[in-house]
Design a protein that fits this description.
Number of domains: 1
Distance between the termini: 44 Å
Strand order of the largest sheet: 1-2-3-4-5-6-7
Radius of gyration: 18 Å
Structural class: alpha+beta
Number of helices: 3
Shape: elongated
Low-confidence stretches: 2-22
CATH class: Alpha Beta
Helix content: 25-40%
Number of strands: 7
Strand content: 35-45%
Length: 148
């Protein structure tokens, strides 16, 4: 019984932290990050803001919608954009990347394709459900090789 109560309490704490993270407001961000968020949401709908730690550094995830497609950015505390994830149509990515994704997914179903841009490096990621119903993601480079 004690274990059940402990697990329940831990679950409530995690839910509380998740709710707190999802309620981050633009005004709560460092000035440089606020500026970047405002610039990046001029022609986009703000969907969410989160604060995370990556490699010991604080980063901010900006979730937006542009023309009905998701566009997510990771921003450092100086306001610099680290990565951009743009939802795109499968047919819009390079042929080799498309072919590699289709071969990996096989008879599964693709739910989303994104272009991931990190500095000048571009890769492509597909979220899909495989034929046994398990959700997965697969990332490739423009030439179709797996992205690390």
């Amino acid at each position: 019984m004690k274990r059940f109560v402990s697990y329940g309490f831990a679950a409530l704490l995690l839910v509380g932290f998740a709710i707190a993270a999802s309620k981050l407001k633009v005004e709560d961000l460092p000035t440089a990050v606020q500026k970047t968020v405002k610039e990046q949401t001029q022609n986009a709908k703000l969907v969410g803001l989160n604060k995370e730690k990556e490699g010991g550094k604080t980063v901010y995830e900006l979730e937006t919608m542009v023309n009905g497609k998701s566009r997510d950015l990771m921003i450092d505390s100086d306001g610099a954009i680290l990565t951009v994830e743009d939802e795109v149509a499968l047919d819009s990515i390079p042929t080799a990347a498309k072919k590699a994704i289709q071969e990996r997914v096989a008879s599964g179903k693709i739910s989303k394709v994104e272009t991931l841009t990190k500095r000048s490096e571009v890769s492509y990621e597909a979220a899909y459900t495989n034929k046994s119903g398990k959700k997965a993601e697969y990332s490739v480079n423009a030439d179709g090789t797996p992205h690390k």
